[in-house]
Protein backbone atom coordinates (compact mmCIF):
# COMPACT_ATOMS: atom_id res chain seq x y z
CA UNK A 1 0.00 0.00 0.00
CA UNK A 2 1.42 3.42 -0.91
CA UNK A 3 -0.13 5.38 1.98
CA UNK A 4 1.17 5.41 5.54
CA UNK A 5 -1.43 4.09 8.03
CA UNK A 6 -1.07 4.52 11.79
CA UNK A 7 -2.85 2.45 14.46
CA UNK A 8 -3.18 2.69 18.25
CA UNK A 9 0.31 1.25 18.77
CA UNK A 10 1.81 4.06 16.67
CA UNK A 11 0.19 6.85 18.71
CA UNK A 12 1.03 8.10 22.21
CA UNK A 13 -2.15 9.28 23.96
CA UNK A 14 0.04 10.85 26.65
CA UNK A 15 1.04 13.62 24.23
CA UNK A 16 -2.51 14.95 23.99
CA UNK A 17 -3.32 14.17 27.65
CA UNK A 18 -0.48 16.52 28.57
CA UNK A 19 -2.10 19.43 26.67
CA UNK A 20 -5.27 21.44 27.11
CA UNK A 21 -7.49 21.13 24.03
CA UNK A 22 -10.03 23.76 22.96
CA UNK A 23 -12.70 22.34 20.68
CA UNK A 24 -14.25 25.32 18.88
CA UNK A 25 -17.79 24.41 17.80
CA UNK A 26 -20.06 21.73 19.23
CA UNK A 27 -21.96 20.39 16.23
CA UNK A 28 -21.67 17.10 14.38
CA UNK A 29 -17.86 16.80 14.68
CA UNK A 30 -17.32 19.07 17.69
CA UNK A 31 -19.47 17.07 20.12
CA UNK A 32 -17.90 13.80 18.96
CA UNK A 33 -14.31 15.02 19.36
CA UNK A 34 -14.94 16.76 22.69
CA UNK A 35 -16.79 13.88 24.38
CA UNK A 36 -14.39 11.21 23.13
CA UNK A 37 -11.28 13.23 24.05
CA UNK A 38 -12.72 13.78 27.53
CA UNK A 39 -13.46 10.06 27.86
CA UNK A 40 -9.84 9.43 26.79
CA UNK A 41 -8.59 11.47 29.74
CA UNK A 42 -7.89 14.72 27.87
CA UNK A 43 -8.50 18.16 29.43
CA UNK A 44 -11.08 19.70 27.07
CA UNK A 45 -12.73 23.10 26.96
CA UNK A 46 -15.40 24.13 24.44
CA UNK A 47 -15.34 27.46 22.57
CA UNK A 48 -18.74 28.81 21.49
CA UNK A 49 -20.04 32.35 21.01
CA UNK A 50 -22.34 33.80 23.68
CA UNK A 51 -25.88 32.90 22.62
CA UNK A 52 -24.86 29.85 20.58
CA UNK A 53 -27.62 27.25 20.60
CA UNK A 54 -24.98 24.55 21.12
CA UNK A 55 -23.98 25.94 24.52
CA UNK A 56 -26.71 24.16 26.58
CA UNK A 57 -25.90 20.83 24.84
CA UNK A 58 -22.22 21.03 25.79
CA UNK A 59 -22.98 22.18 29.32
CA UNK A 60 -25.52 19.36 29.82
CA UNK A 61 -22.69 16.95 29.01
CA UNK A 62 -20.63 18.45 31.84
CA UNK A 63 -18.22 20.28 29.53
CA UNK A 64 -16.82 23.69 30.39
CA UNK A 65 -17.88 26.27 27.80
CA UNK A 66 -16.08 29.56 27.18
CA UNK A 67 -16.12 32.02 24.30
CA UNK A 68 -13.89 30.97 21.36
CA UNK A 69 -11.33 33.66 22.33
CA UNK A 70 -11.19 32.55 25.97
CA UNK A 71 -10.92 28.88 25.00
CA UNK A 72 -8.17 29.64 22.46
CA UNK A 73 -6.28 31.67 25.06
CA UNK A 74 -6.38 28.82 27.62
CA UNK A 75 -5.56 25.94 25.29
CA UNK A 76 -2.33 24.59 23.79
CA UNK A 77 -4.20 22.74 21.02
CA UNK A 78 -7.06 24.54 19.27
CA UNK A 79 -9.30 22.32 17.12
CA UNK A 80 -11.49 24.37 14.76
CA UNK A 81 -14.84 22.59 14.26
CA UNK A 82 -17.08 25.54 13.42
CA UNK A 83 -18.69 25.59 9.94
CA UNK A 84 -16.11 26.09 7.16
CA UNK A 85 -17.68 29.39 6.13
CA UNK A 86 -17.48 30.78 9.70
CA UNK A 87 -13.84 29.85 10.25
CA UNK A 88 -12.07 32.80 8.60
CA UNK A 89 -13.81 35.45 10.78
CA UNK A 90 -13.59 33.21 13.85
CA UNK A 91 -9.86 32.82 13.27
CA UNK A 92 -9.17 36.54 12.74
CA UNK A 93 -11.25 37.74 15.68
CA UNK A 94 -10.83 35.03 18.32
CA UNK A 95 -8.00 32.62 17.53
CA UNK A 96 -5.18 34.55 15.86
CA UNK A 97 -4.78 37.02 18.78
CA UNK A 98 -4.40 34.02 21.13
CA UNK A 99 -1.80 32.04 19.17
CA UNK A 100 1.77 31.80 20.44
CA UNK A 101 4.86 29.71 19.79
CA UNK A 102 4.33 26.15 21.09
CA UNK A 103 0.60 26.12 20.37
CA UNK A 104 -1.06 23.94 17.74
CA UNK A 105 -3.94 24.82 15.43
CA UNK A 106 -5.96 21.77 14.29
CA UNK A 107 -8.71 21.38 11.68
CA UNK A 108 -11.25 18.65 10.82
CA UNK A 109 -11.24 19.64 7.13
CA UNK A 110 -8.65 21.56 5.12
CA UNK A 111 -10.91 24.04 3.28
CA UNK A 112 -9.70 27.29 4.88
CA UNK A 113 -6.00 26.39 4.76
CA UNK A 114 -6.11 24.93 1.24
CA UNK A 115 -7.79 28.02 -0.20
CA UNK A 116 -5.65 30.52 1.78
CA UNK A 117 -8.55 31.93 3.81
CA UNK A 118 -6.59 31.34 7.02
CA UNK A 119 -2.84 31.97 7.14
CA UNK A 120 -1.45 30.92 10.54
CA UNK A 121 1.86 32.33 11.84
CA UNK A 122 4.99 30.23 11.26
CA UNK A 123 5.62 29.50 14.95
CA UNK A 124 2.52 27.31 15.48
CA UNK A 125 1.91 23.72 14.39
CA UNK A 126 -0.91 23.37 11.86
CA UNK A 127 -2.39 19.89 11.49
CA UNK A 128 -5.56 18.07 10.57
CA UNK A 129 -7.46 15.15 12.04
CA UNK A 130 -10.36 14.50 9.68
CA UNK A 131 -12.62 11.54 10.45
CA UNK A 132 -13.93 9.91 7.28
CA UNK A 133 -17.49 9.82 8.50
CA UNK A 134 -20.26 11.93 10.05
CA UNK A 135 -19.61 13.16 13.58
CA UNK A 136 -22.48 11.21 15.16
CA UNK A 137 -21.01 7.97 13.82
CA UNK A 138 -17.54 9.03 15.07
CA UNK A 139 -18.96 9.33 18.58
CA UNK A 140 -21.10 6.18 18.39
CA UNK A 141 -18.16 4.08 17.18
CA UNK A 142 -15.88 5.44 19.91
CA UNK A 143 -18.49 4.69 22.59
CA UNK A 144 -18.83 1.14 21.18
CA UNK A 145 -15.05 0.63 21.56
CA UNK A 146 -14.47 1.02 17.82
CA UNK A 147 -13.47 3.94 15.61
CA UNK A 148 -14.00 5.70 12.31
CA UNK A 149 -10.86 5.84 10.12
CA UNK A 150 -9.44 9.31 9.78
CA UNK A 151 -6.97 11.31 7.74
CA UNK A 152 -4.09 13.11 9.42
CA UNK A 153 -2.02 15.84 7.79
CA UNK A 154 0.59 18.37 8.82
CA UNK A 155 0.72 21.74 7.08
CA UNK A 156 3.25 23.37 9.43
CA UNK A 157 5.59 21.54 11.76
CA UNK A 158 6.97 24.33 13.95
CA UNK A 159 7.57 22.05 16.96
CA UNK A 160 8.98 19.13 14.99
CA UNK A 161 6.34 17.00 16.75
CA UNK A 162 3.15 17.93 14.91
CA UNK A 163 2.46 14.51 13.38
CA UNK A 164 2.88 12.74 16.73
CA UNK A 165 0.49 15.25 18.33
CA UNK A 166 -2.08 14.76 15.54
CA UNK A 167 -1.85 10.98 15.95
CA UNK A 168 -2.31 11.33 19.72
CA UNK A 169 -5.44 13.41 19.08
CA UNK A 170 -6.67 10.85 16.52
CA UNK A 171 -6.19 8.12 19.16
CA UNK A 172 -8.24 10.19 21.63
CA UNK A 173 -11.27 10.12 19.30
CA UNK A 174 -10.89 6.45 18.32
CA UNK A 175 -9.43 7.15 14.87
CA UNK A 176 -6.29 5.02 15.27
CA UNK A 177 -8.41 2.04 16.37
CA UNK A 178 -9.59 1.89 12.76
CA UNK A 179 -6.50 3.47 11.15
CA UNK A 180 -5.24 7.00 10.52
CA UNK A 181 -4.02 7.61 6.99
CA UNK A 182 -1.37 10.28 6.41
CA UNK A 183 -2.26 12.78 3.71
CA UNK A 184 -1.91 16.50 2.94
CA UNK A 185 -4.33 19.39 3.40
CA UNK A 186 -4.60 19.68 -0.39
CA UNK A 187 -5.38 16.00 -0.96
CA UNK A 188 -7.92 15.84 1.90
CA UNK A 189 -9.71 19.02 0.84
CA UNK A 190 -9.91 18.26 -2.87
CA UNK A 191 -10.94 14.61 -2.48
CA UNK A 192 -13.43 15.37 0.31
CA UNK A 193 -15.14 18.07 -1.77
CA UNK A 194 -15.14 15.85 -4.85
CA UNK A 195 -16.55 12.88 -2.94
CA UNK A 196 -19.39 14.81 -1.35
CA UNK A 197 -20.31 16.65 -4.56
CA UNK A 198 -19.98 13.97 -7.22
CA UNK A 199 -20.61 10.69 -5.43
CA UNK A 200 -21.67 10.57 -1.79
CA UNK A 201 -24.12 13.45 -1.44
CA UNK A 202 -24.72 15.24 -4.76
CA UNK A 203 -24.41 12.19 -7.01
CA UNK A 204 -26.28 9.77 -4.73
CA UNK A 205 -29.16 12.19 -3.94
CA UNK A 206 -29.69 13.02 -7.61
CA UNK A 207 -29.56 9.33 -8.58
CA UNK A 208 -32.17 8.41 -5.94
CA UNK A 209 -34.51 11.32 -6.71
CA UNK A 210 -34.29 10.78 -10.47
CA UNK A 211 -34.97 7.04 -10.20
CA UNK A 212 -37.98 7.76 -7.96
CA UNK A 213 -39.29 10.38 -10.45
CA UNK A 214 -38.98 8.01 -13.42
CA UNK A 215 -40.93 5.25 -11.67
CA UNK A 216 -43.69 7.47 -10.22
CA UNK A 217 -44.09 9.47 -13.46
CA UNK A 218 -44.61 6.11 -15.20
CA UNK A 219 -47.50 5.39 -12.80
CA UNK A 220 -45.88 3.09 -10.23
CA UNK A 221 -46.78 3.49 -6.56
CA UNK A 222 -44.54 5.98 -4.74
CA UNK A 223 -44.17 3.49 -1.86
CA UNK A 224 -42.80 0.81 -4.18
CA UNK A 225 -40.56 3.36 -5.92
CA UNK A 226 -39.23 4.49 -2.53
CA UNK A 227 -38.22 0.95 -1.58
CA UNK A 228 -36.50 0.39 -4.93
CA UNK A 229 -34.64 3.67 -5.18
CA UNK A 230 -33.85 4.68 -1.58
CA UNK A 231 -34.56 2.08 1.10
CA UNK A 232 -32.73 -0.80 -0.59
CA UNK A 233 -29.76 1.41 -1.42
CA UNK A 234 -28.54 1.04 2.17
CA UNK A 235 -28.71 -2.75 1.93
CA UNK A 236 -26.73 -2.69 -1.32
CA UNK A 237 -24.19 -0.16 -0.02
CA UNK A 238 -23.75 -2.19 3.21
CA UNK A 239 -22.66 -5.15 1.07
CA UNK A 240 -20.21 -2.95 -0.88
CA UNK A 241 -18.90 -1.58 2.43
CA UNK A 242 -18.32 -5.10 3.77
CA UNK A 243 -16.74 -6.67 0.70
CA UNK A 244 -16.59 -4.23 -2.19
CA UNK A 245 -18.69 -4.23 -5.35
CA UNK A 246 -17.69 -7.89 -5.80
CA UNK A 247 -19.47 -8.96 -2.59
CA UNK A 248 -22.59 -7.01 -3.56
CA UNK A 249 -22.62 -8.70 -6.97
CA UNK A 250 -22.08 -12.11 -5.33
CA UNK A 251 -25.09 -11.55 -3.08
CA UNK A 252 -27.63 -10.24 -5.61
CA UNK A 253 -29.47 -12.45 -8.11
CA UNK A 254 -27.96 -13.28 -11.52
CA UNK A 255 -30.76 -11.25 -13.07
CA UNK A 256 -29.81 -8.19 -11.01
CA UNK A 257 -26.15 -8.73 -11.73
CA UNK A 258 -26.75 -8.96 -15.49
CA UNK A 259 -28.83 -5.75 -15.31
CA UNK A 260 -26.05 -4.09 -13.31
CA UNK A 261 -23.30 -5.15 -15.72
CA UNK A 262 -25.20 -4.39 -18.91
CA UNK A 263 -26.99 -1.14 -17.88
CA UNK A 264 -24.92 0.60 -15.21
CA UNK A 265 -22.51 2.21 -17.65
CA UNK A 266 -25.48 3.58 -19.66
CA UNK A 267 -26.50 5.57 -16.57
CA UNK A 268 -23.06 6.72 -15.47
CA UNK A 269 -21.74 7.24 -18.99
CA UNK A 270 -18.86 9.24 -20.48
CA UNK A 271 -20.89 12.46 -20.24
CA UNK A 272 -21.23 11.94 -16.48
CA UNK A 273 -17.53 11.15 -16.20
CA UNK A 274 -16.66 14.34 -18.12
CA UNK A 275 -18.91 16.32 -15.76
CA UNK A 276 -17.17 14.73 -12.76
CA UNK A 277 -13.82 15.85 -14.22
CA UNK A 278 -15.24 19.36 -14.64
CA UNK A 279 -16.38 19.40 -11.00
CA UNK A 280 -12.92 18.23 -9.90
CA UNK A 281 -11.39 21.04 -11.99
CA UNK A 282 -13.59 23.64 -10.25
CA UNK A 283 -12.41 22.29 -6.88
CA UNK A 284 -8.73 22.27 -7.88
CA UNK A 285 -8.81 25.78 -9.38
CA UNK A 286 -10.55 27.27 -6.32
CA UNK A 287 -13.64 28.18 -8.40
CA UNK A 288 -15.97 26.16 -6.14
CA UNK A 289 -14.46 27.68 -2.97
CA UNK A 290 -14.87 31.24 -4.33
CA UNK A 291 -18.47 30.49 -5.35
CA UNK A 292 -19.35 28.99 -1.93
CA UNK A 293 -17.73 31.84 0.04
CA UNK A 294 -19.59 34.44 -2.12
CA UNK A 295 -22.88 32.51 -1.74
CA UNK A 296 -22.43 32.47 2.04
CA UNK A 297 -21.55 36.18 2.18
CA UNK A 298 -24.68 37.00 0.13
CA UNK A 299 -26.88 35.25 2.73
CA UNK A 300 -27.02 31.87 0.89
CA UNK A 301 -29.93 32.64 -1.52
CA UNK A 302 -29.35 29.62 -3.78
CA UNK A 303 -28.47 27.31 -0.90
CA UNK A 304 -31.80 28.13 0.81
CA UNK A 305 -33.80 27.81 -2.43
CA UNK A 306 -32.28 24.41 -3.32
CA UNK A 307 -32.61 23.21 0.27
CA UNK A 308 -36.35 24.04 0.22
CA UNK A 309 -36.80 22.36 -3.17
CA UNK A 310 -35.11 19.19 -1.87
CA UNK A 311 -37.26 19.14 1.27
CA UNK A 312 -40.41 19.50 -0.87
CA UNK A 313 -39.51 16.58 -3.19
CA UNK A 314 -42.30 13.94 -3.08
CA UNK A 315 -39.83 11.23 -2.04
CA UNK A 316 -39.53 12.92 1.38
CA UNK A 317 -43.27 12.67 2.13
CA UNK A 318 -43.38 9.04 0.99
CA UNK A 319 -40.29 8.22 3.03
CA UNK A 320 -41.63 9.86 6.17
CA UNK A 321 -44.81 7.77 5.96
CA UNK A 322 -42.96 4.50 5.30
CA UNK A 323 -40.27 5.01 7.93
CA UNK A 324 -43.09 5.60 10.44
CA UNK A 325 -44.19 2.01 9.74
CA UNK A 326 -40.67 0.59 10.18
CA UNK A 327 -39.75 1.21 13.82
CA UNK A 328 -36.32 -0.42 13.36
CA UNK A 329 -35.31 2.13 10.71
CA UNK A 330 -35.91 5.23 12.76
CA UNK A 331 -32.84 4.90 14.98
CA UNK A 332 -31.94 8.39 16.20
CA UNK A 333 -28.51 9.41 14.93
CA UNK A 334 -27.96 12.11 17.51
CA UNK A 335 -26.45 11.39 20.88
CA UNK A 336 -26.11 14.87 22.25
CA UNK A 337 -25.85 17.36 19.42
N1 LIG B 1 -20.32 16.96 9.55
C1 LIG B 1 -19.37 16.06 9.50
O1 LIG B 1 -19.57 14.90 9.86
C2 LIG B 1 -17.99 16.40 9.02
C3 LIG B 1 -17.51 17.67 9.16
N2 LIG B 1 -16.18 17.94 8.91
C4 LIG B 1 -15.68 19.28 9.13
O2 LIG B 1 -15.82 19.60 10.53
C5 LIG B 1 -16.03 21.00 10.67
C6 LIG B 1 -17.31 21.23 11.46
O3 LIG B 1 -18.41 20.78 10.68
P1 LIG B 1 -19.76 20.24 11.36
O4 LIG B 1 -19.42 19.45 12.58
O5 LIG B 1 -20.55 19.61 10.25
O6 LIG B 1 -20.45 21.61 11.82
P2 LIG B 1 -21.92 21.80 12.41
O7 LIG B 1 -22.63 22.74 11.52
O8 LIG B 1 -22.55 20.49 12.75
O9 LIG B 1 -21.62 22.53 13.81
C7 LIG B 1 -20.96 23.75 13.87
C8 LIG B 1 -20.76 24.15 15.33
O10 LIG B 1 -20.00 25.36 15.36
C9 LIG B 1 -20.74 26.34 16.08
N3 LIG B 1 -20.44 27.65 15.54
C10 LIG B 1 -21.08 28.33 14.55
N4 LIG B 1 -20.45 29.50 14.34
C11 LIG B 1 -19.41 29.54 15.21
C12 LIG B 1 -18.41 30.50 15.48
N5 LIG B 1 -18.33 31.65 14.82
N6 LIG B 1 -17.53 30.24 16.48
C13 LIG B 1 -17.57 29.07 17.15
N7 LIG B 1 -18.50 28.12 16.94
C14 LIG B 1 -19.40 28.36 15.96
C15 LIG B 1 -22.20 25.93 15.93
O11 LIG B 1 -22.94 26.51 16.97
P3 LIG B 1 -24.52 26.86 16.83
O12 LIG B 1 -25.24 25.69 17.38
O13 LIG B 1 -24.70 28.07 17.66
O14 LIG B 1 -24.77 27.12 15.37
C16 LIG B 1 -22.06 24.42 16.07
O15 LIG B 1 -21.90 24.05 17.41
C17 LIG B 1 -16.05 21.58 9.26
O16 LIG B 1 -14.73 21.98 8.96
C18 LIG B 1 -16.44 20.37 8.40
O17 LIG B 1 -16.01 20.45 7.05
C19 LIG B 1 -15.30 16.96 8.56
C20 LIG B 1 -15.71 15.67 8.41
C21 LIG B 1 -17.12 15.30 8.53
C1 LIG C 1 -19.67 13.35 3.01
C2 LIG C 1 -19.87 14.66 3.69
C3 LIG C 1 -18.69 15.11 4.56
O1 LIG C 1 -17.55 15.30 3.74
C4 LIG C 1 -18.41 14.02 5.57
C5 LIG C 1 -19.45 13.59 6.54
O2 LIG C 1 -17.35 13.44 5.52
C6 LIG C 1 -19.05 16.43 5.23
O3 LIG C 1 -18.40 17.45 4.91
O4 LIG C 1 -20.00 16.47 6.03
MG1 LIG D 1 -16.01 14.00 4.17
MG1 LIG E 1 -16.77 17.32 3.70
From TrEMBL:
<keyword id="KW-0413">Isomerase</keyword>
<dbReference type="InterPro" id="IPR036291">
    <property type="entry name" value="NAD(P)-bd_dom_sf"/>
</dbReference>
<keyword id="KW-0460">Magnesium</keyword>
<keyword id="KW-0479">Metal-binding</keyword>
<feature type="active site">
    <location>
        <position position="109"/>
    </location>
</feature>
<feature type="domain" description="KARI N-terminal Rossmann">
    <location>
        <begin position="3"/>
        <end position="183"/>
    </location>
</feature>
<feature type="binding site">
    <location>
        <position position="192"/>
    </location>
    <ligand>
        <name>Mg(2+) 2</name>
    </ligand>
</feature>
<comment type="pathway">
    <text>Amino-acid biosynthesis; L-valine biosynthesis; L-valine from pyruvate: step 2/4.</text>
</comment>
<dbReference type="GO" id="GO:0005829">
    <property type="term" value="C:cytosol"/>
</dbReference>
<feature type="binding site">
    <location>
        <position position="232"/>
    </location>
    <ligand>
        <name>Mg(2+) 2</name>
    </ligand>
</feature>
<keyword id="KW-0521">NADP</keyword>
<dbReference type="GO" id="GO:0016853">
    <property type="term" value="F:isomerase activity"/>
</dbReference>
<feature type="binding site">
    <location>
        <position position="253"/>
    </location>
    <ligand>
        <name>substrate</name>
    </ligand>
</feature>
<protein>
    <recommendedName>
        <fullName>Ketol-acid reductoisomerase (NADP(+))</fullName>
        <ecNumber>1.1.1.86</ecNumber>
    </recommendedName>
</protein>
<feature type="binding site">
    <location>
        <begin position="26"/>
        <end position="29"/>
    </location>
    <ligand>
        <name>NADP(+)</name>
    </ligand>
</feature>
<dbReference type="InterPro" id="IPR000506">
    <property type="entry name" value="KARI_C"/>
</dbReference>
<dbReference type="GO" id="GO:0004455">
    <property type="term" value="F:ketol-acid reductoisomerase activity"/>
</dbReference>
<dbReference type="InterPro" id="IPR008927">
    <property type="entry name" value="6-PGluconate_DH-like_C_sf"/>
</dbReference>
<feature type="binding site">
    <location>
        <position position="52"/>
    </location>
    <ligand>
        <name>NADP(+)</name>
    </ligand>
</feature>
<dbReference type="Pfam" id="PF01450">
    <property type="entry name" value="KARI_C"/>
</dbReference>
<feature type="binding site">
    <location>
        <position position="192"/>
    </location>
    <ligand>
        <name>Mg(2+) 1</name>
    </ligand>
</feature>
<dbReference type="Pfam" id="PF07991">
    <property type="entry name" value="KARI_N"/>
</dbReference>
<feature type="binding site">
    <location>
        <position position="135"/>
    </location>
    <ligand>
        <name>NADP(+)</name>
    </ligand>
</feature>
<dbReference type="GO" id="GO:0050661">
    <property type="term" value="F:NADP binding"/>
</dbReference>
<dbReference type="GO" id="GO:0009097">
    <property type="term" value="P:isoleucine biosynthetic process"/>
</dbReference>
<feature type="binding site">
    <location>
        <position position="228"/>
    </location>
    <ligand>
        <name>Mg(2+) 2</name>
    </ligand>
</feature>
<dbReference type="GO" id="GO:0009099">
    <property type="term" value="P:L-valine biosynthetic process"/>
</dbReference>
<comment type="similarity">
    <text>Belongs to the ketol-acid reductoisomerase family.</text>
</comment>
<dbReference type="GO" id="GO:0000287">
    <property type="term" value="F:magnesium ion binding"/>
</dbReference>
<keyword id="KW-0028">Amino-acid biosynthesis</keyword>
<comment type="function">
    <text>Involved in the biosynthesis of branched-chain amino acids (BCAA). Catalyzes an alkyl-migration followed by a ketol-acid reduction of (S)-2-acetolactate (S2AL) to yield (R)-2,3-dihydroxy-isovalerate. In the isomerase reaction, S2AL is rearranged via a Mg-dependent methyl migration to produce 3-hydroxy-3-methyl-2-ketobutyrate (HMKB). In the reductase reaction, this 2-ketoacid undergoes a metal-dependent reduction by NADPH to yield (R)-2,3-dihydroxy-isovalerate.</text>
</comment>
<keyword id="KW-0100">Branched-chain amino acid biosynthesis</keyword>
<comment type="pathway">
    <text>Amino-acid biosynthesis; L-isoleucine biosynthesis; L-isoleucine from 2-oxobutanoate: step 2/4.</text>
</comment>
<feature type="binding site">
    <location>
        <position position="196"/>
    </location>
    <ligand>
        <name>Mg(2+) 1</name>
    </ligand>
</feature>
<feature type="binding site">
    <location>
        <position position="54"/>
    </location>
    <ligand>
        <name>NADP(+)</name>
    </ligand>
</feature>
<dbReference type="InterPro" id="IPR013023">
    <property type="entry name" value="KARI"/>
</dbReference>
<keyword id="KW-0560">Oxidoreductase</keyword>
<feature type="domain" description="KARI C-terminal knotted">
    <location>
        <begin position="184"/>
        <end position="329"/>
    </location>
</feature>
<dbReference type="InterPro" id="IPR014359">
    <property type="entry name" value="KARI_prok"/>
</dbReference>
<dbReference type="InterPro" id="IPR013116">
    <property type="entry name" value="KARI_N"/>
</dbReference>
